[in-house]
Write a structure and sequence with these properties.
- The protein is of the alpha/beta class.
- Helices cover 44% and strands 20% of the residues.
- The protein has helices at 13-21, 27-31, 35-42, 46-59, 67-75, 85-90, 111-121, 142-151, 156-161, 171-187, 200-205, 212-232, 255-266; strands at residues 79-80, 95-96, 100-105, 130-135, 163-167, 190-196, 236-242, 269-275, 280-287, 294-301, 304-307.
- The chain has a nine-stranded mixed β-sheet. The protein has a two-stranded antiparallel sheet with strand order 1-2.
- Helix 3 packs across helix 4 (46-59) and helix 10 runs parallel beside helix 12 (212-232).
- The structure holds guanosine-5'-triphosphate and magnesium ion.
- Residues 105, 107-113, 139, 242, 279, 300-302 line the site of guanosine-5'-triphosphate.
- Guanosine-5'-triphosphate (GTP) binds next to helix 7 and strand 10.
């Protein structure tokens, strides 16, 4: 989806080219940008950037809309099944497109398993779409995806072929991969973007107290970018976040407060996962704009996520 950007005031061929190269090829992406972003991307002044943004909004008919139009927009939202009906019910039908869902919990609580299941389930049915997986902990397991796909009677190779996986080596690289995901979204019908884990690299890259502000700022920018992808391409974004089982033990570690705080403000839905007996897990919907708080039990089986 590339629009003719030269129709925007002050944007000539050269500027349009620079914008496109930097990933701002559509009116949607320009409208969703800040002036500072565009200034940097296309080497233009603040005024030009601002008027390009407002013109993009105007052309896209952004601004006030009626409640009825908002409802129609909501109708376009897709929901990805989790594999467990009870879990889906908790989420109002599944993991929603157009927003960020944060899944947090301690190690082994099932965050990655849920993420992998979603990369399979987003492909199901006639309206099936593809997935992007930004992997910061080397936890993307193709064999596991294969297992889950076969349990759904899907062609495992095809399923794997429809997942774009990138390994992030540090937090800057992770941010870059987030930016690059836009190109993939332009060229493919992407219904899901996973970042597993959202905070791990940030935690190790910014250790001291003095670096907290910078970490917070970078993480915020990263999430704003993910949010933009979610709304531009009507994709579901799912990010994972680890929490310490006993924060007191990790004296001085600010991860919980900071990562949680920034991630929380930028996420539409927040789900807390915890281990229960044996292979049972409990998902708690902690934050949602319109769904009641509640819990769902599920289990992790050979086939994937299932009802408990
Ligand atoms: P961290 O990334 O370490 O924070 O953990 P996580 O929350 O991502 O946990 P993950 O999703 O990796 O869950 C791991 C757990 O899933 C394991 O401890 C197993 O209990 C379960 N699991 C993974 N694969 C299988 C499988 O093939 N069969 C069954 N029954 N359980 C599995
Ligand atoms: Mg994991």
């Amino acid at each position: 989806m590339t629009d003719d950007l030269t129709e925007l005031p002050g944007v000539g061929d050269k500027t349009a080219e620079k914008l496109e190269d930097a990933g701002y090829g559509s009116l949607e992406s320009i409208g969703a940008s800040s002036a500072a972003e565009l200034q940097e991307a296309a080497d233009i002044g603040e005024k030009t950037a601002q008027s390009a943004i407002s013109a993009a909004h105007e052309q896209l008919d952004h601004g006030y809309s009626t409640g009825k139009e908002k409802l129609e927009e909501r109708d376009a939202v897709n929901r990805i099944a989790t594999g467990s009906e009870e879990f889906d019910e908790l989420m109002g039908g599944g993991v929603e497109s157009h927003s960020i869902t944060e899944v947090y919990g301690e190690y082994g609580s099932g965050k990655t398993q849920v993420a992998l299941q979603l990369t399979v389930n987003v492909q199901k049915g006639e309206e099936g779409k593809k997935a992007v997986f930004i992997d910061t902990e080397d936890t993307f397991m193709p064999e596991r995806v294969k297992q889950m796909a076969e349990a759904e009677d899907m062609d495992a190779e095809e399923v794997l072929d429809n997942i774009f996986v990138a390994r992030a080596f540090n937090s800057d690289h992770q941010i870059l991969l987030g930016d690059k995901a836009q190109e993939i979204c332009e060229e493919n019908d992407i219904g899901l973007i996973v970042v597993d884990s959202l905070t791990g690299e940030f935690r190790s890259d910014y250790v001291g107290r003095g670096q907290l502000a910078e970490r917070q700022q970078k993480l915020n920018k990263h999430m704003k970018n993910l949010k933009k992808l979610a709304s531009t391409y009507n994709a579901a974004v799912m990010v994972t976040n680890q929490v310490m089982s006993n924060p007191d033990q990790m004296f001085g570690d600010p991860t919980k407060a900071i990562g949680g705080h920034i991630a929380g403000h930028n996420s539409t839905f927040r789900i807390y996962l915890r281990k229960s007996k044996k292979d049972k897990r409990v998902a708690r919907l902690v934050d949602s704009p319109y769904l009641p708080e509640g819990e769902a039990a599920f289990k992790i089986t050979e086939e994937g996520i299932r009802d408990a």
